[in-house]
Amino acid sequence: MVRGYRATARIFAGQVLGQVPLHAVLSRATILASPIGFVFDPEVSGIRWTDTDMLVVFLLWAESHTQDLPPLLSRYVAMLAEMDSPSVASWPDAAIAAKAVEVADPSLMAYVERARNATSQSFLNYFSRHGQHSLSTKYPALFEDTDLLGRARFAKYRYLVRSRFWRLKLGAGWMSFMAPGMDFFNHGEPGTTSLGIEATGPGLRSVVLRADKEFGVGEEVTFYYGGHCIADSLVEYGFSTPELQGCCGCSGARIWAALMSRLPQEFRSEHEGGEEPSN
User: Fold this and answer.
1) 120 against 137, higher pLDDT
2) Ramachandran category for residue 174: left, alpha or beta (phi over 0 → left; psi -120 to 50 → alpha)
């Protein structure tokens, strides 16, 4: 699946690049208002849900219930269901060890183990029949498709959520959410675009992405994901770029140069520009 956006016309600083009404994003608020919102009520489930785990469990349910969703979210869920998970956490240990040497970051395996353990613990918390709060036991009618409740499927959605969700300051707290279409912007340099919540109509507020600089025709429009070390970026997003710093203290540029020198020539032109599949 192709990711990323390029300007088809000149884009000026301040121009709106995309917007999604708050009622159409996947967030704690919209999930609580959904047909399975009651599952996430702490008084009902006895669980204090994180935003990301709510998103994962909701998507597991939604994959087989797209008919119960608004059209935009239904299409978005169907698209996510067709996607593969390139998560490094799903690689064999030998491949991870080789990648750690390749990017000169010995902390990669520790990050992968952390991700694996967090995924396994979440799965046990919510779907193990031996768990204290097994949703498949408490709500069999909601999760009747047991094929959706395997660890691999859970791990896939946990990766998709963690690699695609956004966080925005909202009042005194933060809102974590997934916005259909807007999560296809690739990672890029800081200062290219900015995200915020704006009034976009009478009584309507939306998540709005604006350009912070001018983009020429054909130029890729990107969003800065934040400063991550190489191991963190590989595990959370599935990519690494030159400006990232190695957790071992190595220069990110030096690591990138070493990585590029080992790639066959036919692949270098594809990666040298730093255009990596991501968010």
Assistant:
1) 120
2) beta
